[in-house]
């Protein structure tokens, strides 16, 4: 495992968030387009969670979000953040990370 300096870790803006909207991507079987409140700011991500969660299970869920990821296009949609998950090596399970206690959207993870 490669190690990094704390200064590298400190560059990551990881915050609590709340999923506001979820819809299936029209041109991809495994992708959702998700709107996330990260404390007064709404970010969009395109995520491959279809095999693991239904839209209803995601809607309103408290999550952990990497907010300062460079924007990318995924199947024509802009993804500007990343939902953090624990995922098995064989990708048979993927579980969204959450805070142990309910926290307001936008609280920084340190």
UniProtKB/TrEMBL annotation:
Residues 8-110 form the TRNA-binding domain. It comes from the Bacteria. Pfam families: tRNA_bind. SUPFAM superfamilies: Nucleic acid-binding proteins (SSF50249). Transmembrane segments: none annotated. The lineage of its organism: Bacteria, Pseudomonadati, Pseudomonadota, Gammaproteobacteria, Vibrionales. InterPro entries: NA-bd_OB-fold, tRNA-bd_dom, Tyrosine-tRNA_ligase_regulator. Keywords: RNA-binding, tRNA-binding. This is tRNA-binding protein.
């Amino acid at each position: 495992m490669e190690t990094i300096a704390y200064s590298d870790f400190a560059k990551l803006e990881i915050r609590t968030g709340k999923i506001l909207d979820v819809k299936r991507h029209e041109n991809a079987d495994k992708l959702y387009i998700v709107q996330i409140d990260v404390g007064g700011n709404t970010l969009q991500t395109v995520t491959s969670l279809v095999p693991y969660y239904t839209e209803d299970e995601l809607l309103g869920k408290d999550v952990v979000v990497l907010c300062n990821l460079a924007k990318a296009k995924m199947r024509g949609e802009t993804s500007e953040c990343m939902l953090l998950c624990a995922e098995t090596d064989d990708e048979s399970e993927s579980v969204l990370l959450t805070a142990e206690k309910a926290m307001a959207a936008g609280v920084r993870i340190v």
